[in-house]
Structure formats: C-alpha cells, structure tokens
Amino acid sequence: MNTTGKLSIRGLNKHFGSLQILRDVSLEANAGEFITLLGPSGSGKTTTLRIVAGFMAASSGEVVLDDADLTDVPPHKRDIGMVFQNYALFPHLSVERNIAFPLEMRGLSKAVIRQKLESALELVHLSGFGKRKPQQLSGGQQQRVALARALVFEPKLLLMDEPLGALDRQLRESMQIEIMKICRDVGHTALYVTHDQEEALAMSDRIAVFNAGRIEQIGTPEEVYKKPASLFVATFIGESTTFEGVLQSGSLVCGGMTLPVGDRAVRRVGLRDGDAAAIVLRPDMLRLRPVGATVSDGTMATVRGRVESHVYLGTTRKYVVALRGGQTALIRTPADDADALSIVLGEEVGVSWDVNRAVVVPLRANASETMTGATIASDPTQVSVPGPLKASM
Length: 393
Hints:
Strand content: 25-35%
Strand order of the largest sheet: 6-7-8-3-9-10
Number of strands: 22
Shape: elongated
CATH class of the largest domain: Alpha Beta
C-alpha cells in the first residue's frame, strides 16, 4: 500500500488580467486521503486541480507533495496520475498499450511493464480485455482503463476531473463504489473534482466546498451537511428551507415574525444579538401536521402553509408547501408517516421543526452566498411555538 502522498496547497491565487479566479486557496491532504473539490461551475475547483497537476501556473502560492515543492516542476515529473473527464484514451492503441504508455515513457523493461500491466488490469477488473481498442468498450470500461493508466506507475497523488460526468446514473453510482474501493485498496491520496453534491457526499473522506474562487469550508461529508459554515454551503449541498433575518434575544426576527433559535447553534458560529443570520432546515428536519394538531414537544416551532405538490419516492414522500408570502418549504417524510398521509393537496398545514436541530449560519454581504439551490421561506405570517418557546408576532 502506498504510504506517501501528503499534499499541501498553500495560498494559491490565480489571475487572468484583472479577473481573479482563485483567492488564497489552501488545503492539506493527508497520505491516503480522498478529498473532493466541490462547487458550481466557475468556482475554481478545476483551476486548482490543473495547478496541482502542473498544467497551469499559479499567480502566487505553492504546491508541495511529500515536502517537495512542485511549483516549478513540469507535469511529467510531478509523480501525479490524472484521470480526465473525457478519459483521453488513445483510440488507435489497445487497452494494454494505453495502460502501459506511462511505463514505456519511463523506460521500464518489458518484463516490469508486463507485470505492472497485468496487476493494473486485475485491479480494475479488465483482465482479458487487453487486446481490445477503446471503441470496443463500454463507457464504464473506458473509465476503468483511464483509471488503470493513472495508477499503473504508482503515483504519489491521483487527480480526477469529473471522471463520471459522461456516464448514466446507474453506472455512475456503480463506478463511485469501484473508484472508492480501488483508491482505498492501493492507498493513494486523491483529489476528485465534481459539481455533484451526492457524489461528493458518497465518496469523500473530506470535502472542500468552493465558491467564487475561495474554499468556503473543508470538512467530512457529515460536517458540511449538518454543520455548514455559511449559507452558501448550507444551500449548495442538499435541499433546504431557510429563514433569513436578524438575531434578537435568542430568536431570529424575519419578515414580521420571530422564530426561536437554539443556543448551541448560535454559539457554534459565534453570532450575537444584532447579527444577520439564517436558520437552515433540511427536508428531513421538517414535519407536516394538520392545522390545529397538538404538538407535545415544547421545542417545536411551527409555520403555516398550503400543500402545493407531493411526490412518492418509494421509502419517502416529498412535499412542497407554499408558505404565506410566496415562499416554499421542502419536506421529506417516511412513506408511511400517518400525519403526512392524512394530508391532501391544497390543504392548509403546519410545518414544524425542533429548534435544537436547526442549523444557524451567518449572513455576509456577498451576493454569491444566496445562489440558487436554496428554498427561501422568509415571510410566513403565522408562527406558533408551544410552551416556553412560544414566539412573539
């Protein structure tokens, strides 16, 4: 198993004239770690990958691999494997010759090349396919050839630029599992670029979330989903309903209403009274209740709305509720949830959540933090909180 591959990206900046593409991007990857660079198009993730690979020069900053400064090292001398989005296979060469190409360029003996080639074909489950040409393979098989070529010379670092983007959903999910298994079996450090949130959550040890040339947050999949550091992270990763306003005396004041917030959630992000903030609610945090239903838990807050749509998804049901003020809330319930099953389209309902589970994030004066992907619910006109947490109107 590979025991090298500690990567340090330090203060990367990239300018094209007056346009700044990267802004002080820094990242540490431990040997054997699988890190995904996640973000929308134009956020800087692929530019970062290209700088690490040596295909593009940074305006400032450095890339260090196992204490070796790669800043001025050409790509072919960086000991880095690369899997491209379009695979970049040589169509006139066989599978064997495609995979063996980096070994031939390194001047290895035929015996060593044969041994490494057979190991690589076995690793990606393509033994017996060596004599075929790329056009004789399926998309998933071509992807595995590209992965084998990137791994065959045992690089210290593996880079992957949206390698599953051209595959259909079922094959993509299958290849996610296969790539994870291969990377863990061989112990390679990997940087993986994608804009697919589900893919990042499923595959990564840690995720670096990019926005407007910066890294907004680095953390485990559970951390970036359950404890987002900003509104952008909260709304880009997964579905959510958000309420935006100002903190006052343990509550969020927004749209003429007052919503209670959990003390721990506020302390986690260092917010105080008077700060602009948002409550972020994941679809599984919300509950549908008939209007007037008794809520026994004193930590539950409720807003009113009307059921706009409902989709059956097998084990769950997804509801879209139009809240007063023209906003919407997204709710996922178990398919057999009794409260939800009693509700029909067009019915007025209560949308409830436990204030101790809600995530609170700061709002910054940055328009890019309110990008599409959020479901904004900022102006419902009726809010009720039973017991000691009853909201004021």
